[in-house]
Design brief:
Blueprint: H1 2-29, H2 32-40, H3 44-73, H4 80-96, H5 101-111, H6 118-145, H7 152-177, H8 179-190, H9 198-211, H10 218-245, H11 252-264, H12 277-289, H13 294-323, H14 327-341
Helix pairs in contact: 1-12, 2-13, 3-4, 3-6, 3-10, 3-13, 4-5, 4-13, 5-6, 5-14, 6-7, 6-9, 6-10, 6-11, 7-8, 8-9, 10-11, 10-13, 11-12, 12-13
Amino acid sequence: MNQSAANKRIQFWIGIAVSVACLAALFVFIKPADILSAIGNSRYEFWLLTALSLLLFMILRAVRWRYMINRGFGKNVINYSNVFHVQNIGYMLTNILPFRLGDVARAVLIGNIPPITISLGISTMVVERVFDLLFIIVLFPFTIAAVDHVPQTVKSIASITGALAIIAALIIVGAANRRQTALKIAENFAKRIRFINTDSWLRRLDDMLKGLGVFTNLSDALILLVLSVVVWVPIILGYYMGMLAVNLTPSLVEAALVVCIAALSVTAPSSPGQIGVFEASVTFAIASILGMPEPQAASFALLYHAVNYVVIGLLGIIGISRTGETFGSVIASTKSIVGSGSG
């Protein structure tokens, strides 16, 4: 328990250090005065459209999440309003708490609505992540290929990554359809690794595979695939309009490429909300890969992140008020679940 707490503290401070380093590098390589000038010349009517695109993104994500929850029971067990507000609370907490605890909060809050359980909430969020990751990784090589001045080596790496993603998807589908076989293989592998708790990891894998049961039904999988594509369209449009706001001239494909790179950067350690890492990855994508001006690239990254925080924060506050929860109760419940599962 103490070792786990110590590891989390180390992870937290590593994330803070990475975020600070990214922000420092941003302002070292690009003059702050140039960034401020680009921000001052921003066309704010486009930022309103970007904010609306984020709102639509959250609306559509809740549609997809509710579909997954209801399919888990084979009938409608929860209304859209509850799903929407719980989701928004979780995203708000992810922006302000470390270790993506907002995801745990989502599972706790949705699990408090009978007949839904916390484990079902977690499993549906695993499915969310799988579909999102597959969409981004498959889209990435296509966007790279459409940008003329990207080196062929980078295009080749992106194509290999996309192929590996498809292979991974097939493995996931196979595991979901042969759950007991997958668990047996995982058990044999886990027993060879002395420092992990085999029973604990097998329980987590079993929960995940139960959530991935949607892949055993072709019609459900196709519906979720379509919904996952639709979910990301507003974000691509939001990036496009945000880049127009700072007087850049991207194509929709170039905006989609920046979305992919930003989404993939989530794997890097950072402070809550990806502060610093988001700005650095987006600025790199726009300035270094697309060859657009650095000050405008950095101003877009900073302003888009700010708009994201405002929109998600407002939606989360509304969710707190509508569900009758408080920040304290949500955080206390989240910590209790994390603490009980840490062993």
